[in-house]
Structure formats: C-alpha cells, structure tokens
Design a protein that fits this description.
The complex is a heterodimer of chains A (729) and B (156). By secondary structure, chain A is an alpha+beta fold. Chain A has 17 helices and 31 strands. Classes of the chains: A alpha+beta (729), B alpha+beta (156).
C-alpha cells in the first residue's frame, strides 16, 4: 500500500494510491460486492528510480519513501518520512510513501529491518538507519550529478531536490536518479545535527489525512476482490476451551451460505457471499463446546487469588535498594494502601480482519497488522507454503493499540481461503467476537507500604504487585528465571522504564498470579497500573507528611532532572501554585516510560458533592528529539481519551470463565461530553530518542485520581471509577 | 429489488429484507467509506445522512428508507473533499487511524446543517461517536473551524 504526494492544500482531491487500483463502483443487482479494491502491485523498485531501499525518485521528481513500520493512527508514517526527507534534502511537497512487503524484505536480506510496530518504538528504534538511508541516497544523487558534470562533489550543493554546481549548472534528483542508483552506496554517512533540521522537527501535516476524509482510505475491513467470499467466525467463548461439534443443517440452507468450517480446534466459521449473511448464519449456528478448565473461574475468585498474592512469599524482585524492612521498622509514620486494575480490551474500532487468496503456488493476504513479519510467518504456516510464496499486503490499521501484533486473524483467513482455492475470502470479526477474543490488559492489584521519618521524608517503600504476567501468558520463553520484567515497567532501577524517584530503601516485587484469560500488550502496557500505584501512593505519602505533593516529589527527584522538568512545566502552566487561592482542585503525576519523560496536572470540579467534571489537563512531554510536534500533541491528546476511558469505565470481568463485556454498551469509551481540555507542552531536550504513543496514558489516570482526592478528600483505589459513588459529567 | 437514492444516484439493489442500511451500502452499493464498528448504534462509525439527518445505519433497516429519501454517505459529502468539515479536518489534521472519522464527519456536518454555530455544549450533545485513538479534542476544534469556514463561504 502507498500514498502519492498529497498536497495539504484544501480541496485537493485525494489522489489514487500507487499500489491500489480501484474499479469504479456502480449500481449492480445481486448481493455481491462490486467495488474492487486491492492493493498489491509491485514495489516502485520496478521503476529505475530506486536510489536505495528507502528512496525512489521518479522522472517526474516525485519521491517515494519506503516505510517498514505500520501506520495505525500514531503518525510514524509521516514522522519516518520526515526523517528520510530531512537527510535526503528533497522537496517535502513531492514526498509520497509505500510499504514494502515482508516477502520483499526477506528476499532482500531484511534490508528494511524490523517491521514490528509496538512499544512506542516505531521512530526511536529505526531513526538511525532511516536517516542514514536518506543521507546515503542524497550523497549518491549528488555524486551522479558531479560525475555527469565531471566536477568534484565538494563543489555541489543540494536544496529541495535540486543539485547546483558552483558554476551555476543544475540538475534535479529526477534527472540523475537512475545514474545514482547504479553507484555504490557511500561507505561513510554523516547525519545532520538535529539543530539543523528543517523538515524533521517541524509540525508538518500528515501524509495520510486526505483519504480519511472522504471514504477513500481502504482498511482491511473494506478490501473487496473479484468473487470474494465473506466469513464470520465464532471461537470458544472461554479461553482454553475446544470445539466439540456443530449442527449446520439449518444454517447451510440460509441464503448465500457457501459452507461451515471448523477452524483449528476451537472455532467455527461460516462463509457466505456477503458478510451480513455470514454473520447472521454464524449467530444461528448451534455449537457444542468443551469449555475447559477456565469455565470454573469467576471474577470474585480471580480477585481473591490476587488478594492472596498481596502478602504471599515471592522471589520475583524487580527493584531493590537498601533494606526495606529496616527502613519501615525505623519509620516515624507508616502508611499502607491497596489498589487494583482490571482486565481491559483494546477495542480497536476496526474489528480484527484479514483477506486471503490461496492457490497451491501462492498465498496472498491483505490485512491490518502491527507486525508484518509475524503476519507473514503466520500466513505461511497456515498456507503450507514457503515464505517466498506468501505475500502480505499491509493496510493502514483502524486502531492497533497492541492488539494487532498477533496474527491469529490472519491464520483464520488463510485456513478458510484454502477451502476455496483461487477465491479470496475475507474474515471479519463481529464486535462481539472482537471483545471476547482479545489479548487483555493483565489484571493486577498492588499493596504499597511506605515509611516516613520524623521530618516527613520518605525512608522506605515496599510495592507489591500481585497478578497476571503478559509474558507467562503469551511469550513464556521471554521470562527470565521465571520473572516477567514488563511487570515492573516504570519501577525498574534502569533502562527506558526506570523509576522516577530516589527512595533509600525500596522493594518492588511481584507475586505472579495468572488466569486463563489471554493477556496482551495494551497501549501503555504495565505502566498504566504501575503509574497509578506509584503516583497515587506518592500523593498519599505527601498528604501524610503534610507536604505539598509537588514539593514532596521534588525532594525525591534530585537525580532525575528531566523528570522534574516536565513535572514542573505541567504544574506551572496549570497554575498549581495558585490553585488554592483560586479554589481549584488539582492532581499531579509524573512518569518515565518508553524512553520519554511525561507529566500531567489535572484539574477537576465537583458539584452536589459527587458530580465530578474533569475540566482540564496540562501535559508535558520530553521525548528527547521530537520529529513532529503537532503529531506528538495529537498522541498526548489521544492518550487522555484512551487512559481516561480505562479509568472511568473500562473493565472486563469474568463469569464462568467468559468475558462479560461484548460491546460498547457495557464497555464504554470516553465521549465528547466527558473530554477535558488538554493543553500539551512538548519540550524536547535533545540527546535521546523516546517514544510518544504510549507514555502519557500512564499519567492520565493518577493525575485525575489525585485531583479527585484534592476535590473530595476521597482516595479512589479501584479502577474503573464507575464503581465509586462519584458521577462523571 | 429496491430503489435507494444514494449520493444523488438512484441505485436498484437486491438485499435480504432484514439487512441494515450499513451493509447494503457496503456490500451491495460498494460504498465502504461508511464503517462497521459495533452493530448496535453505540459507536457512530456508520453514521450517514437521510434527508440531512444523522442516522446510525448499522441498526437502520434498508427497507425503511423510501426511494424518495436522500441518503448521503461520506463519499457523497463533496466531490473534491471541499465540504467545510472536510476542509477543517484537513487543516487541523484531525484523523489518527481515521476509521471513526467517516462517522465523525457525517455527524459533524449534520450538526452544522441544523446549528451553524454550535457551542461546546451543543457539540457535547450532538457528537456521541466513539474514537479510540482519541481525536475528540481536534474534532471539537474542527467543528468550530468548519462553522467559521461555512460562515466565510456564505459571506463571500
């Protein structure tokens, strides 16, 4: 999939994408889809203008930048293109993009490296080599011009895709691209000092907006191919359960139904001419399940299991400083609190889907995926074909948030396509299926004990996490001595998820209590609960010490000047110091996560004792280098919607082993009326590359919780708050 | 065979009588700009206009639309992405993943037809669509901006 340079000027018609052909839709009779929309022609490398793997320059001067990571709304497509274009020194108005496929990556010795898009790593993990790709292409283009002129490259300068010699001669990139392509790549590449950036670092418009304004953007759910069939799937509603049998006698007689198929050992699919008919049929299907061991579990028992872990013995230690037992024993004042955080579904607005066409020689897949290479491997395994005979065309995702890293839906599409060789089959999950077959945010509780000395200084803290491990659930080989390091995100002694505070005697440990509910990486991951546990408790300690919460944090942040800087910036802009004079209720939170420093100051108001309105949030972010400030702002704004949806309403509970929430009526998302005003401070201090898509979610909830305490005197320690006696208006 | 007026064209389409308008638009008319998100009128991704009013097409039976009623989908809002809401959305880079935006844009454009200068409170009431990426702040700004663009257009 790709996009041509699209002028941000208003009124410009969204242009046809390079790798998409679209047969105009029109009226037709019978119930078959008629629009034919299929990305998947050869890469622009077929043109002669491929300067290197990252850059293609066409004779018309249009520039195609190859993007390996997936675009799911987070804006890295534009950000990565900015980084390449910056070093390439091309004309940004001429920049378009395309996705290489995972098969092409493999065939070219993984020249585009990692396709995985998660952990807020899209830019920070690939910035070095994509910038080098842009710089190398520029050097080759200049060299080609110098060769043609028979002059020294030192006498040539580049500006916006035009190469100029000191004599006044000039050539464009398009004129020398094919000559440049035949030159050997430079051995040494020098990157610009970010201080000199003029494309990167600028608040440029996204490259992929226009198609999203008139329905032209084709998501996986929208793919239509000639003769395509549609499938709706029902998997066992209890994780770990199996399919015993199904009775399709009546369903097979339903209009449009082409077949009913078991999928693996735990699911059934109905294939029909249209998806509406397939879904209606799958709902009518009588299925006999062996629900397995999971069916004996209810939420109450899961909660009890976690409560037991709060004080149980454990050897899983994430961070240890000094001697906590001694520190607490010698404390003048000891306080304790217990918090909890529920299962959550990602609830991407576009339900899981994939389209596949299988023949004995070739398997093609069209899908939204956060991990093109995992989708490729999954498709190959299901197809029975070698990787070289499997092509995965990535489409923009209708939300990802960590859910679309797994290829489970790809496997289903390929298995069904094998039942209809040569005929494409699209699998689209109903919302209900999507809600039940998630990779859920792990459920945890925490018990935190803190000791203050006689001057109100924090002497010791024991933070015990009890609950589910993501790695144990889905990547057990990644456990280290039985320990899941991700459990301790934002509480670790070092790395890009290190703790924000210096606490002389500290113990952070984990009592692993797993359940049959499949866990996964949910935007922000374990930073979400951990920041609530830490930042709520720090606020409780500040009040116990009789110290201003900002001042209390400052006293623990001497070794964390960048963390302090974002916290102070948010507090200052929000008017923290004058809040009491003005009768405002505010709460703070700070965190270091995904390599970035983030902080928030939330303001709430209360009417009639329990009607709470989240009025305003000031958020500060220091990602080191910022590639696109307006898109960083968009991620920060969006983080509050995702984070506050979870804080206020989000919760998946378990009855007889099955998730109770099957749609947005019981799993609400923050709506306009509850959306606070968000003011974002982007303050890149340089010198490092931090992520942007996830860290701010961590501070959304605790800042609001602390503001609620300031306003009501109530400590809310159980998420979501819909169970409290407060109403959110 | 039923006749529907979609984006100014008469379409003669065949579909099962219980098919929601959403699926007739997507699967029979081939207009995939209107999205499926929940199927129970909660998320608003399927919002279209019927005679100018916003309708959640995932629960609206296609047979309930009269041939004389005008259905407009996001594809038919303008010929060239020039509707004030589309202009404002482009100016402010409102979409993130974009999947909810067809519905947002249709809900916002219907609001402006009924209320050319909506207040924040009016927007809170009228825009109840779900956006999981969290574009709500820019959607609000976009509606105010579109109202201004619309007003300029009228004065010009």
């Amino acid at each position: 999939m790709s996009g041509k340079a699209s002028s941000s000027e208003l009124g410009t018609t969204a242009k046809m994408n390079r790798r998409r052909f679209l047969v105009a839709t029109g009226a037709a009779g019978a119930g078959l889809s008629i629009g034919v929309i299929a990305p998947g022609v050869a890469l622009a490398q077929a043109d002669k203008g491929e300067v290197n793997a990252w850059v293609v320059i066409n004779p018309d001067e249009s520039v195609v930048i190859r993007i390996a990571r997936s675009e799911m709304g987070q804006g890295t497509l534009t950000g990565l293109a900015q980084l390449v274009a910056e070093e390439l020194e091309c004309d940004w108005a001429k920049v378009g993009w395309e996705y290489p496929t995972p098969r092409e990556n493999l065939a070219r010795d993984r020249v585009w490296k990692n396709f995985a898009t998660g952990g807020s790593r899209g830019i920070r993990e690939s910035q070095q080599y994509v910038r080098e790709g842009g710089a190398a292409a520029r050097m080759m283009l200049v060299e080609a011009a110098a060769k043609r002129w028979q002059v020294d490259v030192q006498e040539c300068r580049v500006d916006k895709g035009i190469i100029r010699h000191t004599s006044g001669k000039q050539l464009t990139y398009g004129e020398v691209a094919s000559e440049a392509a035949s030159l050997p790549p430079p051995l040494e590449v020098k990157l610009k000092d970010p201080k000199e950036w003029s494309i990167a670092g600028q608040p440029l418009k996204r490259l992929d907006t226009l198609d999203k304004l008139n329905g032209a953007q084709i998501y996986g759910a929208d793919v239509q191919l000639p003769g395509m069939l549609n499938a709706s799937v029902k998997a066992c509603p209890v994780f770990g359960g199996k399919l015993i049998s199904f009775d399709d006698t009546e369903v097979k007689k339903m209009p449009g139904v082409k077949g009913v198929f078991p999928l693996g050992d735990n699911a059934v699919a109905v294939v029909a001419d249209t998806w509406w008919r397939a879904n209606k049929a799958v709902k009518a299907l009588e299925i006999d399940w062996d629900l397995g061991e999971g069916q004996s579990l209810n939420q109450t028992q899961i909660n009890e299991r976690l409560e037991e872990g709060l004080t149980a013995e454990t050897k899983l230690v994430g961070n240890k400083q000094g001697d906590v037992a001694e520190g607490l024993a010698g404390a003048a004042k000891v306080i304790e609190a217990t918090y909890s955080y529920p299962f959550l579904n990602h609830a991407c607005l576009e339900p899981m889907n994939a389209t596949a066409r299988w023949t004995k020689d070739l398997c093609e897949v069209w899908c939204p995926t956060q991990n093109g290479e995992a989708a490729h491997a999954g498709a190959a395994q299901a197809s029975g074909l070698p990787l070289a005979q499997v092509e995965v065309y990535k489409l923009h995702l209708g939300g990802g948030f960590g859910r679309r890293g797994a290829p489970d839906f790809v496997t289903q599409a390929v298995l069904l396509a094998k039942e209809f060789p040569g005929t494409p089959v699209k699998v689209l999950w109903s919302r209900e299926e999507d809600m039940l077959q998630g990779f859920f945010h792990p459920v945890t509780k925490a018990r935190v004990v803190g000791g203050l000395d006689k001057d109100g200084k924090l002497q010791a803290m024991h933070l015990r996490i009890s609950g589910q491990s993501i790695l144990a659930g889905i990547l057990p080989h990644a456990l280290r001595d039985g320990m899941d390091i991700t459990t301790f995100q934002a509480l670790l002694p070092e790395g890009d998820h290190s703790i924000s505070y210096d606490i002389p005697n500290l113990l952070v440990d984990h009592a692993m209590r797993n359940t049959h509910i499949r866990p996964g990486f949910w935007r922000g991951v374990n930073v979400n609960p951990n920041a609530i546990y830490m930042e709520s408790f720090i606020d409780e300690l500040a009040h116990a010490a009789g110290t201003d919460p900002l001042e209390f944090r400052r006293s623990l942040m001497a070794e964390n000047p960048l963390g302090w800087a974002v916290l102070k910036a948010a507090a200052d802009k929000a008017g923290w110091h004058n809040r009491q004079k003005k009768g405002q209720h505010m709460g703070l939170a700070v965190c270091y996560a995904f390599g970035s420093y983030v902080a928030a100051c939330a303001e709430v108001s209360v009417a009639d004792g329990n009607r709470v309105k989240i009025e305003r949030i000031v958020a500060a972010t220091d990602p080191g280098y910022c590639v696109n400030p307006q898109q960083t702002e968009a991620q920060v704004e969006g983080s509050f919607v995702y984070g506050l949806s979870a804080l206020l309403y989000g919760e998946c509970t378990v009855t007889n082993g099955k998730i109770d929430q099957e749609n947005f009526d019981t799993y609400p998302s923050l709506r306009m009326a509850q959306m606070p005003k968000v003011e974002t401070i982007v303050m890149p201090s340089g010198g490092f590359w931090g992520g942007v898509g996830e860290p701010t979610i961590a501070v959304a909830a605790p800042a609001v919780l602390n503001a609620i305490f300031a306003a009501t005197g109530k400590r809310l320690r159980e998420v979501p708050l819909k169970h409290s006696d407060l109403q959110f208006v | 065979m039923s006749r529907l007026n979609v984006n100014g064209k008469h379409l003669d389409l065949e579909f099962d009588p219980d098919t929601p308008l959403l699926w007739v638009l997507r699967e029979q008319a081939g207009l995939t700009g209107t999205k499926y998100g929940c199927g129970i009128a909660q998320c608003g991704a399927c919002t279209v206009h019927i005679d100018g009013q916003p309708v959640r097409s995932c629960v609206f039976p296609a047979t309930a639309v009269q041939p004389s009623q005008k259905i407009v989908t996001v594809e038919g809002l303008s010929e060239d992405v020039s509707h004030p809401v589309q202009q404002a959305w482009a100016e402010l880079d409102v979409p993130q993943c974009g999947y909810c935006q067809s519905g947002m844009i249709m809900a916002a454009s219907a609001l402006l037809e009924n209320n050319p200068e909506p207040s924040d409170d009016d927007i809170d009431v009228a825009i109840t669509n779900i956006c999981r990426c969290g574009t709500l702040q820019r959607v609000r700004q976009g509606i105010h901006r579109a109202a201004a663009i619309r007003k300029q257009g009228e004065q010009a």
